[in-house]
Amino acid sequence: MVKDFLCKFHNTFKLVMGICHIKQRKVTWFESDFCVSSASSLLFFPAKYSYSLANSNRLSGGGWAPERTDRLRWLQVDLRERVEVTAVATQGRFGSPDWVTSYMLLYSDTGRAWKQFRQEDNIGTFPGNTNSDGTVHHKLSHSIRTRFLRFLPVDWSPGGWMGLRVEVYGCAYKSDVADFNGRSSLLYRFNQKSTSTVKDVISLRFKSQRADGVLVHGEGQRGDYITLELHKGRLSLHINLGERDSGHVSVFLGSLLDDQHWHSVLIERFNKQINFTVDRLTKHVRTGGLDDSLEVDYELSFGGIPLPGKPGTFLRKNFHGCMENLYYNGVNIIDLAKRRKPQIYSGNVTFTCSEPQLVSATFLSSSSSFLSLPLDAATETLSVTFQFQTWNREGMLLSAWLRRESERLLLLLVHGQLRLTHHRSALQSSDIVIGQALSDGQWHTVSISMGGFQVSLSVDDKPPSTMQLKDIAQPGRSLVIGGCPSVLTNQGCRNPTMAYQGCMRSVIINNQPINFNLVQQGLLGNYSKLQFDICGIRDRCLPNYCEHDGECSQSWNTFFCDCSGTGYTGATCHNSIFEPSCEAHRLTGSASGFFSIDPDGSGPLKSTVVYCNITDDKVWTVVNHNSTEMVRVQGSSLQKPHVMKFNYSASLEQLRTLVSKSEQCQQEVVYLCRKSRLFNTWDGTPLSWWLDRAGERRTYWGGFLPGVQQCACSLDENCIDMNHFCNCDADRSSWENDTGVLSYKEHLPVTEILIGDTNRSGSEAIYRVGSLHCYGDRFLWNAASFYQESSYLHFPTLQAELSVDTSLYFKTTAPSGVFLEHLGTKDFIRVELSGGTASRQRGFLGCIRSLNINGMTLDLEERAKMTPGVSSGCPGHCSSQNSLCHNRGKCIEKSSGYVCDCTHSAYGGPNCKKEVSVSFESGSSVTYTFQEPFSVMRNHSRQSSAIFAQSSNSRESIAFSFLTTQTPAMLLTVNTYHQQYMAIILAHNGSLQIWYRLNRDKEPDIFTPMSLNLANGELHRVQIHREGRDMYIDKDTNLKYSLSTDKELITIRSLTLGKVTGRAGVDEEVLQAGSRGFIGCLSSVQFNHLAPLKAAILNRGSSLVNVLGNLVESNCGELADKSSSRSFRGKKLTNAAQSDSAVIGGLIAAVVLITLCALGVMTRFLYRHRHERTRQMASVKEKDHQPRPELRYRAELDLHSAMRDSRKEYFI
């Protein structure tokens, strides 16, 4: 039989007094009466066994154990009054195989409404005992102030049963309490008309019976106000300092604060800085505006607002609940009210906390929780009222059978709305849908009424919705709240979606409240998977684990993050979708342009847009600011200087991260002066200066050596007056120049410039601060090579409580090995290559590059310099199996990475993939003249075997893309000194024709691969390869043709694209196409190892290239390839001798990284054998035994050789 919590045995239990979480003081002990009870009357401690846990192991028996048939298994302690509990301890039952291995700790002020204690990391269970006599202590992460404690076993001895002895540690707790009934308030009146403060501290604890209500409010005539209010179970703080628009700030914190349990609040304000704390969660904000003081007139009210509608109020409901220990700037408000001090007005406030009798039940399972209750058979009507609270959008709330067969009422929660359905039969039904967003974690009141010919449904005291019935409906013998019991599935009761999962209270059926105590005792109805006297709802979005402004939503069991628009992805919006640098964009094959980069990856900083200038030798990151034009300054002095602040497109935190990751940064400062000095001629006092990114004053104007007051001319030793370190200090009336480049990157970028010497007659200055330019990525190629299994690099332990991301590139020849391992006190994370089998924690052999953990790249190279068995860098990029350089580009190794040499490729860009295109106008042509009589196969001997004569001596490889609407047209022609030629033309009908005249005495070979009209304004790709007599054509197909001869093109004279003037020995149709030339776009032209179109652009002025007419360098090939209809953009290429355009293309480094490995990360795994792993790691970390130098050198050579041979680089 279940007992109430009145003790029938006045047993003594030692309550250990002493160490609290706030103060440390000497431990004192005393005996205190308290009551121990459980769910069964047979389970009280006998009087002779009721001493402290410390002494109980000397007794012949004792401890608590429930009966095996008992459904309610808990041990409850009544401490007689509220105390501050700081720790608990447990033992098993003495002299038995019974103990508890894990348990939950619940606490309550009343013994009816319970709350589960959770540690700081939201863990709700405590590890228990492993035997009956050992004592396990747990110091609580935060103290709890309570009267009742309940120990709820979760797991117990596998060879026995539950057994428990407990001890509680804590401190006495006294408080001043005030009870507010929803119509009461406390007014604290000031001694003067108003008070103005720059510092305020408000602290209190509260528990509320309603989700809304004002706790604190004060206001002033000039518009100041402070309001602390409860709104939908959350606390909101509103403060305004004087200015209605700019001085206002609102902060929201907490959730589910109307749970009838105590919550602590602390508000600290100093000037504009505000710290707002609710239950150990703190937000830091600053108010706007110019004022620092809060001016409040007459009074400060607590618990409500005497006159509704005052400025600064956001809710008009008064607080309904209790407050304790209410302090305003050190004044104990409740104590003053209790002593009836004149400065306090107490309106309907009492000083004992009234406790509501609301008892909740938690439906734990979404598939099998239910509460079945009987109905009076004589009742002709049915009314049901209850309150529910959940996060789930779906669930069955109620099912009631009616007297007519197969007729029932079904209440569902569907997409956060209530749907009441009346089923007359399996095929006939009607329903009502009401409410919105009812799965918001708030309490909602539902009322169902059925009688006669109608059924009505209402929610939250809103007008009911009514459904008319065709026949009179009468209730059956029972109804089910929650899901359907399995025993009723054969009667048609099935969960349409899932069972209800959430909290429920105040269940009233036909005007009779349901006593949950009777349900627990088995005296009323039946239930499954319910927890009584507690609402187990949790706000899984508080704290918000969604990073980078991801939006959190939740169900009962988990939470979800919406990362849309954040620039991040992953379960918690942790991983950035952007590349970390311009160097990384180059490796993806990107050309110059604006890009978003995220310098700290998954770190707290967001992405920013920069310009990536990808040149032949460097990749520059350019960050602009608000003033890049020349600025003229006159009339400034030190007393009234000219000041310009620079606002960059990235924040200072982003710039600091970008600069630190770059190899080098610089910023040009153009400075022209006329009778305007930078430094005072007599004492060297700066007359102008600039501020670095930290706001520090800097007085140097060039170079990379800070702290020296000089300009670039001094560094170059070419100042116009050697008596000064700057040209401007000569103080001449002519314009002088002190332009310099700032390159000490720890000071960059420039955030402000001040000019102070332009107020004299004729004095003037002109300046311009350029954009910030940085190149290189110090960490992208940061690598280390491991050539001993015992070698390792040690870094500090990773602090990653909630989320962690790890990425790295690696190359190896070994089938297994450990990449990295994070060891904590109990937990570890290991990433290893297993090769399909366990690695037995073998060390890694190979290269690791760009190791990044939570947005921070580890400096492998620096650690490798001081670690035996490890060397800096990673060899063999070009020899890996990755295709790093495309389209005949040549990969060239560098100390950090590689570059692609695109000299013999028709393409440009960092990895030779960028189209090189030119638009031809009427009469335009490009002719490439070979430097000497040129044989295609001049490097091969003519005395080679017959096999080679057939397969190798006659070979051409031609590839290009074209777009045109003109016919006929000359695309490409090659002629030799022996009156041979080959030509590729478009005939009158637009078909592609290939002409070969290899023997001037015979007719030419003519091939028409396709009869389609290719002059249709679309881009077409042509690829031709000849081997002797065989010619292969791939123009959207793959065709093979045979020539009449296998002769080669001997001593090639020239290659022409576009118009060809009269030429002897050329057939009439080819001559006609040549005279018409070509109008349109030619792109990426390749003839064997030559790129004539690219040569025409890069080698202007060369005698080998002749350009006639107007050509326009364009992106027509790229645009056409993307099916774009936009006009081509570009610049004109006139005769090569006259052209002065900028060079495009170049030799730019690139890498294509292939993701083939998966990250094997084992997270938060209980590390029970730490001492064994420590010994293993100690053997790995052994440094005393060093290999002989020659063996070490040989091992390193073997590794480098293996890396260069065929190892592919992988990314995880």
Features:
single chain; 1212 residues; mainly beta; nine-stranded mixed β-sheet; nine-stranded antiparallel β-sheet; 13 helices; 39% strand; globular; disordered N terminus; membrane; EGF-like domain; Contactin associated protein-like 5b
How would you describe this structure to a colleague?
With 1212 residues, this protein is mainly β. The protein is built from 13 helices and 80 strands. The strands form 14 sheets. Strands 1, 2, 3, 4, 5, 6, 7, 8 and 9 form a 9-stranded mixed beta sheet that branches. Strand 63 and strand 64 form a beta hairpin. It is globular, with a radius of gyration of 42 Å. The two termini are 61 Å apart.
Quantity of strands, as a count:
80
Which percent bin holds the helix content?
A: under 10%
Shape: globular
Please outline the major beta sheet.
9 strands, mixed
What is the count of DSSP helices, taking H or I runs of 4+ residues? 13
Unreliable stretches (pLDDT < 50, length at least 5) are 1-33, 40-60, 309-315, 933-952, 1123-1206
- Specify the structural class: mainly beta
Q: Over the alpha carbons, how many angstroms does the gyration radius reach?
A: 42 Å
The span between the termini is 61 Å
Mean pLDDT across the residues is: 79
- Strand portion: 35-45%
Main location: membrane
Domain F5/8 type C: 64-171
Membrane topology: Single-pass type I membrane protein
Domain EGF-like: 537-574, 875-913
